[in-house]
Design brief:
The structure holds two protein chains of two kinds.
Chain A (H helix, E strand, L loop, with lengths): L8 H13 L5 H12 L5 H13 L3 E8 L7 E7 L1 H18 L12
Antiparallel strand pairs in A: 1-2
Helix pairs in contact in A: 1-2
Chain B lengths: L5 E2 L8 H10 L3 E5 L13 E4 L11 E2 L9 H9 L3 H52 L10 H29 L1 H30 L10 E8 L4 E4 L1 E2 H10 L3 E16 L5 E8 L3 H5 L5 E2 L14 E4 L1 H8 L9 E4 L2 E8 L14 E4 L12 E9 L5 H18 L1 H4 L3 E5 L1 H5 L2 H35 L1 H9 L4 H38 L15 H27 L3 H5 L6 H40 L9 E7 L8 H16 L4 E7 L10 E6 L11 E8 L3 H4 L4 E4 L13 E5 H7 L9 E4 L8 E8 L14 E5 L7 E8 L7 H11 L8 E3 H44 L1 H9 L4 H37 L8 H27 L3 H6 L2
Parallel strand pairs in B: 9-14, 11-13, 20-25, 22-24
Antiparallel strand pairs in B: 1-4, 2-3, 5-6, 5-15, 5-16, 7-15, 8-9, 8-12, 8-15, 10-13, 11-14, 12-13, 17-26, 17-27, 18-26, 19-20, 19-23, 21-24, 22-25, 23-24
Classes of the chains: A alpha+beta, B alpha+beta.
Chain lengths: ~110, ~950
């Protein structure tokens, strides 16, 4: 049974993106999706580093795919969520739900 | 025929090898496989191949894209190189795919390329940051990826690793003491010498005058290219005009240099040097006095009460730092003068230090002279006025003055400028640049020597580094550690270098001596600027010499070095690096040696050439009559006459004569003149000559050749026909084709009131030492007809000149016991002293050249030695197969000559350039002297041969059997 650890913010982002992308999740698509959804620039290096770490923790799994000419003949690496990963996501969601519970929006009114 | 990259599609289970085999059968040549397995799931799936041109039938193969839509190559290389092995292909692929499919269409070519580079940069940075965080992460902390934790861990870790690196570095360096000591010494020498030169430059340029707010102060000086005068100052009348009319300056101050004043009324009568300054001088300069006050307005007008300011040094030395001096009176040149203040010690800087006291400059508006341009003029720029505007105004006014006063101002160009221009002529700047270049060369040579040593050391340390790498140190970490070692060496060298600098400066001061008036050498100290400079050099040096060796060492391939092979691929590239370094050293050394050679050549030339008169065996003694005591001209004449008679009566004296200015030593007094009967030349090309006032015996005393006519005699009385002697140059230039004897000339221009002078004789020229420059025209006027207030007694003595000093002094005092006597020196010493600074310069260049030669020779020795040890096996084989020792020797010497040859070729170009620069700065120097170049090449070649022969002999003595047996 894996140790219960916190998920870092970016790890969370990556896992959720994998969820959204499903079958289509490989390096480029993951990066594009994250960039689009978070509206922040993301480097491919950061994506891979995080994915490597997540794979090390057993939360994702990877698999080589086809090369293509536009990739200069290089293969794609597909990533998918492992059950452990899904569990981690659930725990994280529950935690944030608890924290966000009862917080009215917008926040500004709370700061007076 | 380019390299075309072929991509082979494969799907899942289809084995690759068949495809490849098929292609090979079709004639393609497969040159590279990423991994041996070639299995589909291996991520090294790219196959590249080289194809010849058309013959091969095109297989069912996709052709990769050509450069048009390729991602930027450098960036691609970087991301592949610095990504972890398992990922690199996929990352590159992802980037390439996005580049082609999305960014190119969206952003266009340059936009896409920019995006790509941005991605690579950010990825690499991210990778570095996360690796650091990982290596410093402490296990107790929850594995939290928030940035803040990472950053704080980074900061601590960085400092710790730095200290760790330093300690490790010191330990390693102590383990190889020879290397460390040699390196530190070499560097210390280079840094020390650099620092010394920088101090000089600092004093002269960066810290020239302690004038507050130097951005708002400008200087006005003049030149007269027509008369070959490239630095003069401002005449009194011009100064007053400038003051009245220039708007760009809110205040103008003038300083007249160095009058000799007789001070009495305080201890014994003594002659001191006083500088005259207009009343506003110290206000313009923003200088506050130490005690009392500076001049007030009006104190510089004739008739004002006489006041004096003491310099700080004088106050200390002569008045015992007594604060009660204020208000006291003393007599200067016979006049009652009140001490009103003491100046601050900062003012004793550069040539200003010469001033023992400062007195107001009395400018009589009515009698202001427009011809003698001696006022050193500075001014405060008006608020809002830039230096450029001031410059323009001064130039415009210069033209106006030349138009308004054509007699005195034609050909004179006034320039306004910053302190930098005012301080030194172009010639001086050229010397500075040359010096700067030389020290840079020296530094480069020293660094390359050290780099060579470090390269050698790096090869020796490959095992140690390989082990560290195996234990987990990343490349960057190893690089950092090696650079820290270099830094430690540099810092030690820097500290030592400061001592070297101090010693060099002390040596310089000693060499130049205190007589030569360049007292700025005494003011050279290590100050803040200099320390900063040393720091910078010490910090940059490790990068220069340490970076590449460290880089190479850090890149050692782990597996290769841990296998016990003595000749890894690192050997070859190490040798190449060292070869390049040595060639550079040879080139630099050659350049420096040529410069030194040219200078030595010039020095020998200067000392042995004919000057036009006999200066050996002549004693000089300056006598200036005090204005207060000798107000009238006939008193001057009487005084000098009597002293001369007495001097000539001495048995030790062969000839005695008075002269107004010493040849080649004193500056010239240049005047315009007209020739009777010849058309008046236009103002831009007026006749000019130097004027020297002499007593009749002068020509004989100094053995000037009398070419025509007669010498001046005592019968050329004050009331008689006014006569003059001219030198050959004047006769040839301005009286061409005529017999000069009997011609008449008149000083000044068309409405001058000077008397006509009859030329009675022609004497020989003074040599200028520059074959391109013609001699200076000189007219010699008899003293009795042209009385002067200050003259120099020149006596040719029987026997040693210095022995006659006392006797001569007594003769002067016999006429006037209170008359102070100025400089007494032999003419020979004065001429040599004038060269002293130059000699020092030469010594500097020569020492640098010698240093460079030694370094280059050791470099050659090192490389050849290394090469020999590398090739020991090969040499052994050759000898076993019958090669004679002569052949081996020849082989090695040929290798070395090749190196040296390239160095010499490159160095010659540099030497030529430096020679030309030097020639423009030093009169009479031949910049492209082939003899000097040839000599230098010879010396260098000799040194190289010696440096080569030592290891070469070792090569010859290699026993083939042992060489082959060893690994």
């Amino acid at each position: 049974m894996a140790k219960r650890e916190y998920l870092g913010e970016f790890e969370l982002v990556v896992l959720l993106t994998l969820l959204h992308l499903g079958e289509e999740a490989y390096g480029m698509t993951i990066r594009l999706e994250i960039e689009e959804r978070t509206e922040r620039p993301v480097s491919i290096g950061a994506v891979y580093t995080t994915l490597r770490r997540l794979e090390g923790k057993g939360l994702v799994a990877s698999e080589l795919g086809d090369p293509s000419p536009s990739r200069g003949g290089r293969a794609k690496k597909f990533f998918k969520l492992e059950p452990a990963g899904a569990e981690a996501l659930e725990r994280s969601r529950a935690m944030f739900d608890r924290l966000w519970e009862g917080v009215p929006a917008p926040l500004a009114s709370r700061l007076d | 025929m380019g390299r075309r990259i072929l991509w082979i599609h494969y799907h899942g289970a289809e084995p690759l090898s068949t495809e490849v085999e098929g292609r090979m059968a079709r004639g393609g040549r497969v040159t590279e496989f990423c991994c041996a397995t070639m299995k589909p799931e291996c991520c090294h799936s790219r196959i590249s191949s080289t194809m010849w041109r058309k013959s091969q039938a095109a297989p069912k193969i996709d052709h990769g894209d050509e450069s048009g839509t390729r991602p930027p190559r450098l960036a691609e290389w970087l991301i592949i190189r610095f990504s972890p092995a398992k990922e690199r292909d996929c990352v590159a692929g992802d980037l390439a795919e996005e580049f082609r499919e999305i960014r190119l269409p969206r952003l266009g070519r340059s936009g896409a390329r920019r995006w790509y580079r941005g991605q690579v940069l950010r990825s690499l940075l991210h990778r570095m940051a996360s690796r650091r965080a990982r290596s410093e992460a402490r296990p107790e902390l929850p594995h939290d990826d928030t940035t803040t934790t990472r950053v704080s861990q980074n900061r601590e870790g960085l400092m710790n690793t730095f200290i760790q690196d330093i300690r490790y570095g010191i330990r390693t360096l102590l383990q190889s003491p020879t290397f460390s000591v040699l390196t530190v010494l070499t560097l210390a020498l280079a840094i020390g010498v650099n620092t010394a030169i920088f101090s000089m430059i600092n004093v002269l340029l960066l810290r020239p005058l302690p004038i507050a707010d130097t951005d708002t102060i400008g200087f006005i000086y003049s030149t007269n290219p027509q008369r070959s005068i490239d630095r003069a100052y401002v005449s009194e009348a011009d100064f007053l005009d400038f003051r009245r009319e220039l708007r760009s300056f809110s205040a103008l101050a003038g300083v007249g240099r160095g009058t000799s004043l007789v001070m009495t009324g305080h201890e014994d009568p003594v002659r001191i040097i006083g500088w005259e300054a207009t009343a506003n001088t110290f206000d313009v300069w923003g200088m506050e006095p130490l005690l009392g006050r500076t001049f007030q307005e009006g104190e510089d007008l004739p008739g004002a009460e006489r006041v004096v300011l003491l310099s700080h040094g004088t106050w200390e030395r002569r008045f015992g730092s007594d604060p009660g001096v204020l208000g006291r009176t003393l007599r200067l040149d016979g006049f009652e003068t009140t001490i009103i203040g003491v100046l601050a010690p900062e003012l004793e800087f550069g040539s200003l230090a010469e001033a023992e006291v400062w007195v107001p400059l009395r400018l009589d508006l009515a009698a202001a002279d427009r011809e003698r341009r001696y006022l050193w003029t500075s001014g405060r720029l008006a608020p809002g006025v830039t230096l450029n505007q001031a410059r323009e105004e001064v130039s415009a006014m210069s033209l106006r003055l030349a138009a308004e006063y054509p007699d005195t101002n034609t050909g004179w160009i006034y320039q306004g400028n910053s302190m930098k221009q005012a301080l030194a002529t172009d010639q001086v700047w050229t010397i500075f640049y040359l010096l700067g270049l030389t020290v840079t060369f020296v530094m480069l040579i020293a660094c390359s020597n050290v780099a060579t040593m470090m390269l050698a050391r790096a090869s020796a340390r490959t095992k140690e580094i390989a082990v560290r790498a195996a234990l987990g140190a990343g490349r960057v970490r190893i690089l950092r550690q090696l650079l820290t070692e270099s830094l430690v060496l540099s810092v030690c060298a820097g500290i030592l270098g400061l001592f070297v600098a101090q010693a060099s400066l002390a040596g310089l001061v000693w060499m130049v001596g205190t007589n030569s008036g360049t007292n700025f050498f005494e003011l050279l100290t290590i100050d803040r600027n200099v320390l900063a400079f040393t720091l910078v050099v010490s910090a940059v040096a490790p990068l220069l010499f340490g970076f590449f060796p460290a880089l190479r060492a850090a890149r050692t391939d782990l597996s290769e070095t841990l296998k016990d092979s003595t000749r890894g691929s690192s050997g070859a590239s190490g040798l190449r690096g060292r070869r390049i370094l040595v060639t550079t050293q040879v080139a630099l050394a050659l350049s420096l040696m040529v410069v030194a050679g040219l200078l030595i050549d010039d020095m020998i030339d200067t000392r042995t050439r004919e000057v036009g008169f006999e200066y050996r065996g002549v004693l000089t003694m300056r006598v200036d009559l005090a204005e207060g005591k000798y107000p009238e001209e006939r008193q001057w004449a009487a005084f000098f006459d009597e002293v001369l008679t007495r001097a000539e009566s001495l048995p030790a004296v062969e000839n005695a004569a008075w002269v107004s200015r010493l040849p080649l030593i004193d500056g010239a007094a240049r005047r315009e003149f007209l020739v009777e009967g010849m058309p008046v030349p236009p103002p831009e090309r007026s006749n000019w000559t130097d004027i020297v006032v002499v007593s009749p015996d002068y020509i004989d005393a100094l053995h000037y050749p009398l070419i025509q006519g007669r010498n001046l005699t005592d019968s050329d009385e004050a009331e008689g026909i006014q006569v003059a002697l001219v030198n050959q140059e004047l006769a040839e230039r301005y009286l061409p084709g005529r017999d000069a004897i009997g011609e008449r000339i008149r000083l000044g221009s068309t409405d001058s009131e000077q008397p006509w002078l009859e030329v009675v004789g022609v004497v020989g020229n003074l040599a200028t030492g520059d074959p391109d420059n013609p001699a200076t025209p000189i007219a010699y006027l008899p003293l009795r007809q042209n009385p002067r207030q200050g003259m120099v007694l020149t006596t040719r003595t029987r026997g040693e000149p210095l022995e006659a000093v006392e006797a001569l002094r007594r003769q002067v005092w016999a006429v006037d016991p209170e008359q102070p006597i100025g400089d007494v020196r032999t003419m020979e010493r004065m001429l040599l002293d004038g060269l002293a600074v130059f000699d020092t310069l030469i010594s500097i260049f020569v020492s640098f050249a010698v240093f460079a030669l030694v370094m280059a020779s050791t470099g050659i020795y090192g490389v050849i030695s290394f090469s020999v040890s590398q090739r020991a096996q090969e040499i052994g084989i050759r000898m076993a197969l019958g090669a004679e020792s002569g052949d081996v020797l020849r082989m090695i010497v040929r290798q070395s000559l090749w190196l040296v040859g390239i160095g010499v070729a490159v160095g010659t170009v540099g030497a030529f350039a430096l020679g030309q620069a030097l020639a423009s700065a030093v009169v009479g120097l031949n910049g492209a002297d082939p003899v000097a170049l040839g000599g230098v090449v010879l010396v260098l070649g000799l040194a190289a041969v010696i440096a080569t022969l030592i290891p070469a002999r070792r090569a010859v003595r290699i026993d083939p059997v042992t060489a082959l047996r060893s690994e």
